[in-house]
């Protein structure tokens, strides 16, 4: 009888199959199949090994990627503000101001007038045909008007000066004019002249009061509009070109 050999053969086959089944079970973890499980494990391991960036790192990266915006310093802004901007591409001579010295001129003193001129246009201009004088008959020219520069480039300034003897008291008008005969083709022909008023004092003090010497002539308002507002102790009267006397110390000189 050959049963034992057959039985042994069957037993060997069962053992081999069982061993094979065990190896297969060990090679594939539970719940995962094929290469997909391996890829899933690999992704999880990579994620675990690469921590998320911190808030500081994210902020640093944002700052690094943000374009830098250039800002102007106050000094640069001041320089830009001071740049001359012409009113047009034509020349344009303008009388900006008139000053006189002394500030409280008396009939015994010579008065020096200074007019400031600027070319506010965009092309060079010649300073010609100018005058600077008080509009009063009883005045003598000590030094005729002279100009610092004959030609002004765009934005440049110069001064006109003249010196006068004025022997009359009261309110005087002084005028400064350039390009008197409109020989220079300018952008604006209306700014070539300027007039101001000032008061000439008598040799021995301020004229403009009457009777009690605190009654001040209202003509003082022509040179100092706020005179009576600033000096309420002084009474405002109209002198009508009548006789006036020196004020006392209670009523100061205009612009003093």
Oligomeric assembly: single chain
Number of strands: 13
Average the pLDDT over all residues and give the rounded result. 75
Major sheet characteristics: 4 strands, antiparallel
Full CATH superfamily name of the domain at 93-200: Immunoglobulins
Under CATH, the topology of the domain at 93-200 is which?
Immunoglobulin-like
The helix-strand sequence is HHHHEEEEEEEEEEEHEE
Strand order of the largest sheet: 1-2-7-5
Reported CATH architecture of the domain at 93-200: Sandwich
Provide a count of the helices.
5
- As a whole number of angstroms, the C-alpha radius of gyration is 50 Å
Question: Could you estimate the helical fraction of the residues in percent?
Answer: 25-40%
Uncertain stretches of 5 or more adjacent residues: 23-50, 67-71, 77-81
Distance between the amino and carboxyl termini: 153 Å
Q: What is the general shape? A: elongated
CATH class category of the domain at 93-200: Mainly Beta
Q: What portion of the residues fall into strands of 2 or more residues?
A: 25-35%
Q: What structural class is derived from the secondary structure elements?
A: alpha+beta
Keywords summarizing the entry:
256 residues, four-stranded mixed β-sheet, alpha+beta, Immunoglobulin-like, four-stranded antiparallel β-sheet, single chain, elongated
């Amino acid at each position: 009888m050959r049963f034992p050999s057959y039985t042994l053969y069957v037993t060997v086959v069962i053992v081999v199959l069982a061993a094979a089944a065990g190896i297969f079970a060990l090679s594939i973890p539970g719940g995962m199949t094929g290469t997909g499980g391996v890829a899933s494990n690999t992704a999880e391991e990579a994620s675990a090994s690469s921590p998320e960036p911190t808030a500081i790192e994210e902020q640093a990266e944002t700052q690094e990627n943000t374009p830098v915006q250039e800002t102007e310093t106050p000094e640069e802004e001041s320089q830009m503000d001071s740049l001359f901007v012409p009113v047009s591409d034509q020349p344009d001579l303008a009388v900006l101001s008139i000053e006189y010295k002394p500030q409280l001129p008396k009939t015994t003193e010579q008065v020096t007038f200074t007019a400031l001129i600027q070319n506010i246009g965009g092309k060079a201009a010649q300073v010609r045909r100018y005058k600077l004088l008080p509009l009063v008959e009883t005045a003598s020219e000590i030094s005729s008007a002279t100009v610092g520069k004959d030609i002004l480039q765009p934005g440049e300034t110069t001064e006109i000066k003249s010196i006068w003897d004025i022997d009359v008291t009261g309110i005087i008008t002084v005028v400064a004019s350039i390009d008197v005969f409109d020989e220079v083709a300018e952008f604006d022909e209306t700014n070539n002249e300027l007039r101001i008023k000032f008061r000439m004092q008598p040799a021995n003090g301020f004229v403009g009061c009457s009777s009690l010497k605190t009654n001040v002539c209202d003509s003082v308002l022509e040179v100092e509009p706020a005179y009576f507002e600033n000096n309420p102790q002084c009474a405002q009267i109209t002198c009508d070109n009548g006789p006036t006397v020196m004020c006392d110390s209670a009523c100061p000189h205009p612009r003093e």
